[in-house]
Structure prediction request, 769 residues.
Amino acid sequence: MYALPPAPAAPPRRQVLVGTAVASLAAVMLMGGMLGVFVLQRERTPDGELWVPQGVQIPEVPTNVMLISFGTLVLFAQWAVYAAKRRDRSHIGIALGLVFVIGLAVVNAQAYVYNRMELPVGETAYAGMFYAVTGAMIALVVIGLVFTGVTAFRLLGGRESDQEIVAAHALYWYVLCAVFSAVWLIVFVTK
Amino acid sequence: MSTLETTLDSAEATADDTVPTVGGTTASPSLVGVVTSSDHKVIGRMLIGSAIVGLLVVGALGALLGAERIDGDGTLLRESALTQLFAGYRVGLVEAALLPLMLGMCVLAVPLQLGARSLAFPRAAAAGFWAWFGGVVLLIISLANNGGPFGGQADMVSLYVAANALTLTGLTIIAATVATSVLTTRAPGMRMKRVPLFSWSALVASIGLVLVLPVAVGVHIFVYVDYQYTKAAFGAANGITDWTGYLFTGPVLALFALPAVGFFAELVAVVFKRRMPLRGVVLAGIGLVGLAAFAGVTQQEVIGLPWAGSGLTLSEPLTKFADLVTFGVLVLVPLLGVLVVLGVSALAAKPTKIGGETVRPNLIAPFVLAFFGLDLILLGMAATALNGVDDLALQGTVFEEGAAVAIVYGAVVVGLGAVAYWFPKLTGRMVPTKPVLGLAPLAALAAALASVPYLIAGFTDQPANAAVYDNDGPGELLNVLTTAGHALMALVVLAFAGLVVPAFISMITTSDADTAAGDAAGDNPWEGHTLEWSTTSPAPADNFSVAPTVMSPEPLLDMKAAPDFARSAAAQSTGAAG
Prediction:
């Protein structure tokens, strides 16, 4: 065996943060690809035919509240980063708890939108695609909620030095906020 | 330990009973240990082993479908089964053979090359493998029950689409762990420009996969929901191929085969016993091949070039310019990347002298396989470019299939070379060299036979994915040759498996290294230049007992070139640490 000289201790390379960035890239590509196909199919609607079925309305208030919720959600995720740097457990707990509650509220708002629209999934091409895009978005939010739970358990369980995971957690929610902004504009506003 | 855990805990790694311990003494792994292992070498082995099984099936399917198309009457197989067989063949080539083989190579070798103790997020990689594996099993079940594109059993068609999405999700997760590994687990001193060429290609390919595969998953979600509920927007079962076919043919295959290009470049320096000249150019060349990812992101099955008879018409200059740019960036530039790698490799082959003596190249069996394989990949990429020229009217013919098979089988031939190359780090034994050398031309012949006749048959307008066609040309001979090529490829893969499996079995069953099958391998039997050859053969569970220092892209060559390298490197390390 060659005897290469031993190296000094490897500096931390922010593996969780980089891994989260790569996973976030995958999430962006998933939603970006779906929105691209959504717009393509919308543009392909023959003249004289409606893309959104007659009588179907997307409730604007809950969808706008969802967008605002994402904005506040990333604010609290960043607060958790700030608190983690200061090893302030109580503030970490409050911030991550708020992230979790607001994330749940986003899921709830989407369920409310589904309920109010009363759009059967099998009615038109639009219906299937609407549920596919928004359903995928909600799946990403649920993954984010699990991430929040894991982050909270880690930090509140005593691994206070693990600040990187809080930064990675915030990064994921930042990306999701940007992705939802695109969903909001394309699916809920321009339809 | 959760999937968020970035590395194996050292205690767990040492206690892991699924892998050999240090110095050629092996421990018997349990089945449960293998199935639940997060050791990158075990996951890589499972991926490669599954890909070899997939190759056998795909080779048999290719031979069967070739035989069906020999006389143009389509009388050999039931017509109702043909669509499933074609779908299984197309999907199998990419999702059950090419991608798991390439990612298996990356998972197996990248951490060793980087001087890392494990893959980043090893449990996530294991989860990705099992998601992929489950997806492939469901694909087989759906196709066997009249599912798939044009399938007649509605539930099985839905299952086919969902299984495809699961398979692609698993592969995305594995690619993400490979990318994160290269970005974060490099040994001290290994800056990005010092990353081994194979690991660089693994990084470019895995980031490309993270860009391409989620888009495909999204399309599958749409197709699934549409088929399940409305059958209005995506053409129902008949539209599946239209929406997802770009993954199985066309420019994106170059991205999937990219680790094979990096492996070839890596071996050139080893074979010619020198540092790679113009290394930055090779890194750039590999990066150029990665541009093929954008063909996948934009879901392009064919990048068309409307030539319009005598030349580019100037009536619509902007449109023509846009066509040319798209064709150039997504098809020609990746091809140029492979040519750059080959060109610089030719420079490396220039005879050199050390101490007045000409250095003789060490033509090892893995390099011979890699050389043949890369030539076939180049052929397939050139054919893909030709396929885009509208005036040649090759689209919709078997020309596309020939181009895809050339890339996939070319990468497979390289992949067999990679398995032979890194086999010592897995088992501590050598793959028998002479039989592998004998298999190399056979593998190249098989790949050429399976692809080139269809490149010719495309010009005679033999339609793609059809058993019945107007057979008034040399179609019969060409289809016989293709059938023989697929059958020979299956036999070559079987023979290769026959060479490597005994060593694996003896590794599992024998605790005494002296009585294990095959010749014992030294720590660096090929005189490699990169870090994987600085650890023992087989590599221990955590790869390196101490993290090595790297001061150039070829750390082992540094040691040989300067005997006092170790001392100076240690001094610099100390200085850097201070």
Observations:
- Residues 64-189 of chain A form a domain with the Four Helix Bundle (Hemerythrin (Met), subunit A) fold (CATH 1.20.120.80).
- The helical segments of chain A are 15-43, 60-85, 89-117, 125-156, 163-189.
- Chain A has a mean pLDDT of 91.
- Chain A touches chain B through 44 residues (CB under 8 Å).
